[in-house]
Amino acid sequence: MLLVGMTGHGKSRLGSFLMSPEDTFSIKQAAFEFSEECKASTQIITAKPLIENGIPFELVDTPGFGEKAGKDLEHTLQAVKYLKSAQEISAVVFVYK
Ligand SMILES: Nc1nc2c(ncn2[C@@H]2O[C@H](COP(=O)(O)OP(=O)(O)OP(=O)(O)O)[C@@H](O)[C@H]2O)c(=O)[nH]1
Ligand SMILES: [Mg+2]
After folding, report:
1. How far apart are CA 63 and CA 70, in angstroms?
2. Neighbours of ion ligand 2 (CB under 5 A)
């Protein structure tokens, strides 16, 4: 399951919540690093294994769009490389606040 969207809209925060909804974790303990303010944080695509209803899958956090000139291209190339190597994408979640 791939989390995509504009920078600062909450992909990493949502991903961390989905990994452990019961935890009121601090930023340091979160599964996916997220920023304290609404600023760009994720730079590298990160996949974490998760089991839901006995079904194993990966939750994938991606860098956000709209950070600054040049970054969108860099992040898109990174995404293309990741998607080419991925076995299967079951869902793409567009995170919009
Ligand atoms: N109030 C509130 N704040 C949120 C929510 N989701 C995210 N935030 C805050 O918004 C800020 C940005 O969240 P991130 O999860 O880092 O955003 P992101 O989409 O991963 O950003 P990039 O990694 O730059 O693409 C952080 O301060 C979060 O705590 C939400 O649902 N409610
Ligand atoms: Mg992020």
Report:
1. 13
2. 11-12, 41-42
